[in-house]
Queue: 4 jobs
Job 1
Amino acid sequence: MVATTEILADLAQRVGGDRVAASSLVPAGGDPHSYEPTPADAKRVAKADVTFTNHLLLEPQSLIKTIDSNAPEGTPNVSLAEAAESYGAHVIPLVENIGLDVLWLGLRVRGTGKERGATRTSSVQLTATKLDGPGQLVAYLTESLGQPDRYFDSTDGLGPQDSTTLPPAAHTHLNWAFTKPGIYHLTLTGALDIGGGKPLQPLGTGTFTFAVGVDPHTVKPAAGGTATVLDDGHTDLTVDLDSGRLTAYSDAKKIGAAQSEVPAGQVVIDVPNKALATVPDDPRFAFLGKPGAQIHQLPQAVLGKHVHGEIDPHLWEDVANAKAYVQLMRDTLISADPDGEQVYRDNSANYLRELDELDTYVRTELATIPTDRRQLITTHDAFGYLASAYGMTIAGFVVPNPAQEPSVEQVRKLSETIRNLKVPAVFVEPNLAQRASVLTQVAKDQNVRVCSLYGDSFDEHAQSYVAMMRHNADELKRCLGETR
């Protein structure tokens, strides 16, 4: 039996006991959000009697495709986060509350596309087909270790290579860089790939207007008429799989109470002068211009490849949700191996009692933390369920682009958050420590502790789900509840 992550494999092994051998496709300490499968992974899936994924876009689509295309026909292939709701799991929205002082702009696919034959292994292609403006546009992703990945780049002319793909119901973040101030019109075209060698299905085309370094309220949108100006909050250039339309999809409060999206041709996106950035002295970023040159850039904000949906996929940070996973795994193993039914029922019953004790332990420990000290500042937005279930609060901050020095404003905001909330500690996930240099430096400057929380994976100090959650409870109590 295979599972995508160490956490899922551990839960499944506890249910299966001696009748199963559960292993994780993502290696120890790996990041399930970005892990790329190997041919050996495909062979492991092909030999598995049962496959468990978390999904809700936790895993990259390349891993999901590897599983769905190699899992033996007729064997259980269960997406736990979706299916566990019928066992009492509680899901919450993924709230991204990063306080940028400019618009946070990404890409999104909405709708299911079922009438077009779309599945979870389908993909939507978004291609930049035309750009009008005084300079060049580059929309690029900065990966975890600072490597840029260009999605749309007009500096060498737009062509088929200026495209990217997203799974259904997914969203991602990008940097949007403009080489000169002025008015730009960017045309995007969508197409659906349902796989199987079938031709791409055309979706819609839309033209978005950017006001770069000029007053956006004086700029006419591509379709004419009255413009909807977007200048703060979180917005995505979006293709709808069901209607084929391209829109700007945003928080309703940012656009107007009556709507959460605006047709592409009616949008003006503000790229103000406070979005000015300096091209880094790094040859990897030469496509932006000469080192030291000034560009206007809407930042990616979240470090690394960050494709996700609208629901937070980290359900296991609430022990009650882990219990739902265990019950679903029990019934799945019984369906695949009826002869082991009693073993699976006994194992799961024992484990569920242990998880009840764990839930009580976490709740009791965190209840000792004074209410005004229950603030979480972390390297990764993975703890919404922990906060929701156990009375904590998530305090957001900007993760800067590793190719550039963080702006004074970004460091100031993070410092103010720590200072104003009187946060006694910040938290780093062990497997993401390399991403935490700014967080740890600001913590040092503010004389607060740097502590550890486990989110997606184990290490040598926590090698099971129970050990991980007990550590998290102990660490939160030690770092937030104790005075120095």
Job 2
Amino acid sequence: MPALPDGETPPDSGALPPTAALGAGGRDLGVYLHVPFCRVRCGYCDFNTYTNAELGGGANAASYADTALREVELAAGVLADPHLAAAGMPAREISTVFVGGGTPTMLPATDLVRMLDGVRTTWGLVPGAEVTTEANPDSVDPASLATLAAGGFTRVSFGMQSAVPSVLATLDRTHDPARLPDVVGWARQEGLDVSVDLIYGTPGESLTDWRASLDAAVALEPDHVSAYALVVEPGTKMGAQVRRGELPLPDDDDAARKYELAEEVLTAAGYRWYEVSNFARVDAGTPGDAPSGDDGVPRHGPRHASRHNLSYWRGQDWWGIGPGAHSHVGGVRWWNVKHPRTYAFRLEQGLSPAAGREVLDGATRELERVMLGVRLADGLELAPGTGAVPEHLRGAVADLIGQGLIEFAPARAGRVVLTLRGRLLADAVVRALTP
């Protein structure tokens, strides 16, 4: 698992500086709830996850909901601090809740609902709030999905990864791909939106394998598909296998071909990209699912997009609950201690679980705005509110157009929208725009 970043030591109270309140009235507030438990740890995964057998005390699955709710209470106190209020921090209801992991649905559905109830009681939810949980296909049944839907969840994101058993085995995934139609059907019966996550570039995965996974995903008719290129992290089991020569390192050209195939298959099936790795189903005649506007900016609707993830890419505010969770409020970013036992102990002592934080300066915030905004289909405004290309970027923008990396019409109006080739080389576009 990756080490936590360096940063300044946060106060034990978790208090935020007054600068975090600046402009807060114009930003959404979301909540991320991290559930750090998995039945087994997949060989490619470097997330902050644990098997329940590794843990005890206030850190295990049985007591986790109570522990997480302690941080919800602490967060409410921090955001309601009179010093922040005096600096302009408004009381805000929660726009999106995302329960991730790990495998959140290893906890009883009643525990997930109880955590959501804690968020709802503490802050309130905006009308139509998006509430998502991740789930493995083998960790839900009709009863648990019914409990989640009745408790206020609106969306479930299934970790499909692949439809090919040999690829799943290489990834150490334990679910039966034949179960996906059942779990999607159960979720649909409860009125839940459905997303499926796919991974391409697994060692040994052929283009035919990847096509089979895409076709299987499309056949499920989900509302949303995420397609992520496998990244082999050095501290993982798979990283060690690659280092020892037991598995080949994923190839960049192979990954590019597979991304292009994903674009082809998903577009033909009625999905459109709204972020480089994410595709949402287009509903004909639905407001917000319209095609591109006169300025060439794609507008295929955030209706089925992950609004929670969009809040990250658009620099909104969110509080991350759980061990290792990261948060961001008004240019202040912090991260919690990683181990569940340490996390639980600090909260039991009435202390913030934050391990470190940083206050982003203007240059860093602008760099992140470019890095994240470039990845979105509605594009990046180079000089927000002006409709123009800043003089110092005109040469770079002209070069990017010439290389076929960004669309011509939006660029004339000061907005960077990636072409398909640009999506494959998004990092190069960011480098060109941040000299």
Job 3
Amino acid sequence: MTGDGCLKHPPIFVYLHPVAMASGTKIRSLSRLLDASSAPLWVIGPKGTLIYLSAAVARWLGIDVDVLLDRHCVAGTSISDDPLDFVAASLSPPPGFNERGTASLRVQPPPIDGRKVTPLDVRFVRAGTASDSMTFAIGGQFDDAVADTGGATEVLQAVELRKKLDAWRAHHADIATIATAGVSSQARRMRTKLSVAASTRTHLAFFGPDGSGSLSIAMRVHQQSAPDEPLVRVEGPLMDPELLDATLMTTINQLSESKTTRVTVLVNELDDMPIEAQHRLSELLTTFAPRLRLIGLCTEQPRLLCEPLGESNDDDTISLEPESTIGLHPKLIDVLSTLSVVIDSLASRVEDIPVLATAALDTRRASGDGNAERFGRAALDALIVYPWPGNFEELESSVRHAIAAAPRESIGLEHLPLAIRSFRPGHADATQRPANISLDESVRRYEHKIISEVLEASDNNRAEAARRLGISRARLLRKIDEMNQ
């Protein structure tokens, strides 16, 4: 034992004869001996659930460990609404354990009831065959090292990624969606903004490309900042003032009838919402301020493209020319300027991709989609060089494909989707140059030709033209602006 009561050397496990194990009295004696030890010890059963935690674990975590029994102890299970699932998942063994049968990891549980838990060095040892094996975990100080042979380097890299993920989950459990993980400056800035957003009820804007996961992040932030407040979702491109009023009729009545009612409206694709509907939304926000909150999801950074016509001394009214104005309404820009969160594209966060991919893999494995626990070097390299046009949603889909295809603990290059494993950066550059000259320009000219024909057939009624083209009017107006440039 060291001075702090931890074991200096790996523990010695004593084999108990089946007859002895069948004796309830002797099992109780063993349990009392383990509980008397100052070294935290827990056991994970064959089904991946916690079946025993010693008294020292209770002292270390500062909770009654009975509440952790039968919870899944698999990395990634922590993506849950129950904080105790975060704790149980943090006690799971690291990557490489299934192959080696023994492994070490510095375990960092998330804060419990706002109290930080001290990290603990833990040795994991498996006993039994694959179908009925149990995993013993004991805290201590271990000086022995694993030889760097075979796939050890790959395993050690996976363990380091697991440590980064555990630290992310421990400090950002409230907003622990895949897009928020990472070590880049973009990831750190985003987490700082989200921490503020989750701690206060205010208007909020998200700006991110398609597939950025902004909807799931916004939903989680709303649950944290206003857990008991109703949330009404609105599809921005489909709205006009009348349809918006009809969609929010129940909300408007509730706010009108009670001065204590609070409601949040989440508008998807706010920057594609027709400008008249945006104007009506700004009126509702003014009428029911501060009880009506707006969360807007946009695909682009805010651009003040809607301008009033003429002068007005009335701040509550504005004269608009719908056919020539697009983008965010100026009053909505003022509302959303309080707090906005930018979710950068995955291609701009290359250094975060190993952590993000591992987080997605943990989630799929915890859901029972497969047994793979890490990416091989070639697979990880392929993920890093791929441009990810579909961003985080494409990454999650690719990981789901890979874990289903991988028969063992490691995901190889051959298990990734074809688009990723066949991508070659050099070839992309070579094909991009002629595309800029011929393909893109040809597509642009054809698109402009179709738009012009539909406008002519619609007697230049842009709303009707947008309906025939199957796009929002705001998008059509942007296309027309591009044609006139």
Job 4
Amino acid sequence: MSVMDRYLYPRVDTPRILSMVLWPVTVMMIFHRSVILAVNGSRTDDFSTVYNAALNFLNRRPVYAENYTTVDPHYLYSPSGTLLMGPMAVLNPDHARWTFIALSVVVLVASAYLLVRLFGYRADSWVFPAVLFFFFLTESVANTLIFTNFNAFVLLGLVGFLTLIRGKRDLWAGACIGLTLAVKPVLAPVLLLPLLQLRWKVFVTALGIPVVLNVIAWPLIVDARSYLDRTVPYLSETRNYYNSSITGNGLYFGVADWLVIAMRVAFVLMAIFSLWFLYRYYAKTDELLWLTTSSGVLLGTLFLFGSLGQGYYSMLLFPLVMTVFLPGSVMRNWPAWLAVYGCLSFDVFSSKQWEPFGRYLEYNKVPLGWSLLMIVVFCVLLFRWLDLRAAAQDGPDKPDAEVTAGTAGAA
């Protein structure tokens, strides 16, 4: 290369180019989602319900006295969650909401950082802005900020748990789960993972923190008994609005009960096989892949099987999506990413020209995305199991059989 070419065509490596492209775009996307869309708000307002409950708590007024027959967002947090949310009401409503949005953005950035480090990448690599860009591109993160709810903190609890449990810091890992359980029990199924490893210290803080906080909060809430009498029974009911679970979707579209039950059973059976295979073949040889994929299977199945599954819960599948960087990932195929588009896309499919079709797509993109993702995981692992069985039957004459089985469906 001549001296002139050296100055006219300076050499820049690809990772640096990616970082230069991604950082400004990502920063502006974060600004747009948080300062513009989130502050603007939406018809759906999760924050006001929580703020009013916190205000009632501080002023010794009933907290669990809502009318659950309406379709407005309801306050469903346990007494321990009320205790943790209480300090918000010290500020006026607008300042409290803006503060909560700002904290949620910080928490989301921290979650992305921990996820990048969990998978072995440096913060100054192109992967960090790429993960942040993906986060804020999704409907889950955007609507978590716009509706202003607690889900960003649940994501941090999940990623913190995965990071700490890999670092053998069990009490702190349990604390990450325990603090989220004190507000909402979404991450409870993830406790199956330390249970399978017989890591009992995790449960000391995971269960101890919400129990202690509930004991403290109970005498401070004037109608704490109403949480058990009114709120808990309501939580077990299936509502037919803003509900992407199998039962919620079936109720909305009038699907026969037997078909709803059959689908729920089918997804549970697929999850059982997937979890068994992941534990048997990856738990001891590739703990990161086992933890992140198994947590995705547990949570994705919960979203489908439970009484309430909301689209923005999909952000808890980020660790599963991130496994695409790992050799044995179940995400290295196009159907998996079609599923990711379905449950994480911010696209709206409402159509004026084809109204029924557009409404069907809009109401079903999340449950179809969750369903396809769980089916993909099951099928990839099933094919690997079948390959392993075939290799075992062929005997030692096929040295490459096991390697083929380990990568089947990954590419």
